[in-house]
Design goal:
The complex is a heterodimer.
Chain A: E1 4-7, E2 10-13, E3 19-25, E4 32-38, E5 44-51, E6 57-58, E7 67-73, E8 76-81, E9 90-96, E10 107-108, E11 112-116
Chain B: E1 3-5, E2 10-14, E3 19-21, E4 24-26, E5 33-39, E6 46-52, E7 60-61, E8 64-69, E9 74-79, E10 88-95, E11 104-106, E12 110-115
Parallel strand pairs in B: 2-12
Antiparallel strand pairs in B: 1-4, 3-9, 5-6, 5-10, 7-8, 8-9, 10-11, 10-12
Classes of the chains: A mainly beta, B mainly beta.
Amino acid sequence: GAVVSQHPSRVICKSGTSVKIECRSLDFQATTMFWYRQFPKQSLMLMATSNEGSKATYEQGVEKDKFLINHASLTLSTLTVTSAHPEDSSFYICSARKQVDDTGELFFGEGSRLTVL
Amino acid sequence: AQTVTQSQPEMSVQEAETVTLSCTYDTSESDYYLFWYKQPPSRQMILVIRQEAYKQQNATENRFSVNFQKAAKSFSLKISDSQLGDAAMYFCAYRSAPANFNKFYFGSGTKLNVKP
C-alpha cells in the first residue's frame, strides 16, 4: 500500500500563534493532496486541494489567508494555521492520490489534532 | 458540489451477523468512483472497498461487498460475518471526475457497533 505520514499528530498552541502541519507521501509521488478538517463525531470537510508547484484551490468558505497551503514537492504538502484561535481547534487530515498508477483511492495521513488555548 | 448522504448515524450488529450500511449520492457526472472508508478509534482512514462507476459488477473484498445501483445513485456496504474489529466509523465517499480535480466528498458517517 501507499503510506502518508502527517506530523505532528498533536499540537497545542496559544491563541495568536501559527502552527504548521506537514503531510508527506513516503513511498509514492503525489501531484495532488487534499486537506480536510473533521469536527468531533462529524464527517470530513474538504478545505483545499493542494497541487504541486501551484496555488492551492480552496473550498468556499475556507479562508486562504488563515489556512496557508504549500505543496513544494511531489511528496510534501504543508498546512499552516496562521494566528490560530480557539475556534480553529480541530482534527486536520491530509490525504494524497498517487501520481503514477492511480488506483482512484485516497491515502490518508494519521491526522493532526490542533488545540488552541 | 456533489453530495453524499448516509442516513444511518449509528448501527449495531451482533458478532458473526450481517449488516448493511446505506449511502446515496447526488451527481451529474457519469465518470466517478465510489468508496467506503473505515475510521477506527485510531482515527486514520482505511479503504474498505471501491467501485468504479462504469463497472456494473458490484465490488467485493472478502467479507465486504457493495450494492451499487447507478440509476438510483445508491451505494450500500454489506459486511458479512461481522467481527469485533469491524467496529468503527464508516464513511461513504465520492470521487469526482478529473475535470473537477478528482475531489473527494464524504458522507456524514455511520458508527458501527459490533456486539459480542
